[in-house]
Amino acid sequence: MVIALAVCIGGGTGSGGAAAQAVIDGWSWSILVPSYTQTDVLGSHLRELMNRDAQRDMPPPDVSALRYTPSKARRSANLSAFVERTRAVDPNGAADLQRLFADGDIIEKIAALIAPHGLRVDNLADAYALWWVTAWQATRGDNDTLGHDVMAAVRAQAARALNDAGGPARASDAQKQELAEALLVQTALIDGAVEQAKGNPVRMRQVRAAVSNGAQRMGLDMARMELTGGGFVPGGGR
């Protein structure tokens, strides 16, 4: 991944190991992402934009509507809600997630890691781009560092799609924060799961399959896209 987010979940042991297992179990995908996001609509916009971007250059997108003012109180409520939603379907996973969140502010940890790369946690385009790249790499069993130009291109694609989808750009600050933090938590878990699976082919296959299935629930078929210096383009295939 562009930034080593695996450190946010304990470097592969303790709560980190247990939390990353949640990626394989698959509980986080449908539980953490808020329903207003309309991931099927967003996914269709992303697929359309990949086709457009592959054909011609696009002007820089406006990201102003995707920014939000974060609140520590809302963050605490969001993380607590993620745990409670998980508890309803996976009590063990919820306990692991609760231990992870108790080990310091995971969003602040991510913010510190991505800031040197020009990315922020208070912008939906940045959060979605981080998740998209990390998930795509995970389906390839990879989390190598990527260049700034690649991330900038994916961020632009994410911003265009989020703006075109309408709902995320029009959402309240509270809704934007909930979506961004759900994506950021997922990103750290995925990156940690890939890191832990290195050297274990069976576990890596499980991680790759789980992330691929989860991304499909977000409206994206990672097998049918490739990542280039200009962002994501159609490609691959099963």
Overview of this structure, please?
This protein is mainly alpha-helical and 238 residues long. The protein has one domain. 63% of the residues lie in helices and 3% in strands. It contains 11 helices and 2 strands, in the order H-H-H-H-H-H-H-H-H-H-H-E-E. It has helices at 15-25, 28-32, 39-55, 72-87, 91-102, 106-114, 124-138, 148-165, 167-170, 173-197, 201-217, and strands at residues 225-228, 231-234. The protein has a two-stranded antiparallel ribbon. A hairpin with a 2-residue loop joins strand 1 (225-228) and strand 2. It is globular and about 45 Å long. The two termini are 23 Å apart.
Percent strand: under 5%
The number of domains is 1
- Termini separation comes to 23 Å
Q: Which stretches are low in confidence, meaning pLDDT under 50 for 5 or more residues running?
A: 11-15
Please tally the helical runs, counting DSSP H or I stretches of 4 or more residues. Answer: 11
Helix content: 55-70%
- Please tally the β strands and state the result: 2
Q: Given the C-alpha coordinates, what overall shape results?
A: globular
The major beta sheet can be summarized as:
2 strands, antiparallel
Q: Mean pLDDT score, rounded?
A: 82
Structural class based on helices, strands and sheet pairing: mainly alpha
What are its keywords?
mainly alpha; 63% helix; 238 residues
